[in-house]
Amino acid sequence: MPVTLGIMHWVYLSFIILILGFMLLRRDTTLVCIAGIFVLGLLAKQSVYLAVTGVFTSFIYAITELLGTILIISIITAMSRVLLYSGINEMMISPFAGLIRTPARAFWVIGILMMTISWFFWPSPAVALMGAVLLPVAIRVGLPAIGVAMAMNLFGHGIALSSDFVIQGAPKLTADAAGISTASVVTASVPLVLIMGVVTTVTAFWLLRRDLASGALQAASNGADRENTNARFGKNSSPNFLSKPAQCYLAVLIPVMFALDVFVMYQAKLQGGDATALIGGTAVLILITIAMLAHRGEGLEQITGYLVEGFQFGFKIFGPVIPIAAFFYLGDAALVTLFGKVLPPGSQGLVNDLGLALARTVPLNAGVGAVTLTLVGAITGLDGSGFSGISLAGSIARLFSVAIGSGIETLTALGQIAAVWVGGGTLIPWALIPAAAICGVDPFELARRNLVPVVVGLVVTTIVAMFLV
Predict the structure, then answer these.
(1) What is the pTM of this model?
(2) Which regions span the lipid bilayer (predicted)?
């Protein structure tokens, strides 16, 4: 039964538009997000004190959802700090110095490596594996940290996660909702993923190279990148506690340990949070081992010091993100969790209800169907998950294909791609936190730089899909 949009739906949509407007104007959105949470709480509970309580509890909900990401970023930062202090980092990055010699080569090499690893183990573990090692190499050859973050983000959370060719979590969800096989969705997504990936990354690289050539980005980023790296990991003082042979041995051992993690992930079929946890646990063991070797008698105290520095950085980075994440989580399960069943029977949440309403208000033909699936996917991705709404995209693709008479596989794949590119970690600031945090850049600035390439990619991909339906 169709759900009628109520006042809460329209208020939620209004605040989304307002937040996006503030982002485009490069203004902080914290106050707007808190106001949105309060107003939605007031409408849900008809009580001022419960609405005020809802602001705080929504923050707790957001922190709980983001805690795994906060922890992995903090631990990787702490580990990277001790690698730099001990001089091991220099040994680890030396093999890449010959391969990555220019900003352009750094962008494409990092991106392709990120995409390849992400296909097998998803992006969050891939960011943790690559960022701390490749970031210094890229900065050294002139690619600013924001360029590294864009490469890891677009190739990993964009191309790899939206296609999900190996693990096939995303295509299974959309295929089940559409009533077709997972293999058919994967096959149909290949040309769309190719078009989306090529257009988006080439556009991003062109804009990045333009800004580097003009000197604006380079001038603003050179000192900031070094300052951010030192602030996160400390200056590489390379104490003489470790001999050169010891540094070389550990520089080889650490990648081997992470390679063993990759092997275990494959054998045990670990993915997502489980894979990230394995990487995080390994990073803790590496931190402890090197701290004890490098600091000797002071190792016990230094272990705690490194962890404290890592957690300070992690929570500092996530501070601006928690309010906006708290607001957008209300578009899905958080609303019921915090305020109870305040939506009409049959509702699938504020975000999904808006997506369904859009699908029901447009005429049905191949062109409109493709545009609608892109918009529905993008709207459902606004909660920052990328996966919460792809089942809805599959359901709507099935409805449209019945009316059109063909194209269910293509429409399903298109909705999946739009939802994951928007919500999986290229446009929603808190969803792209892993890449932003590892590279030490502002997630909101990263989202702004990704906006034009991703929108251009979605437009071109949608047009191509119209001819494939």
Answers:
(1) 0.70
(2) 6-25, 32-52, 58-84, 105-122, 128-156, 177-208, 249-266, 278-297, 317-340, 361-380, 386-405, 417-438, 450-468
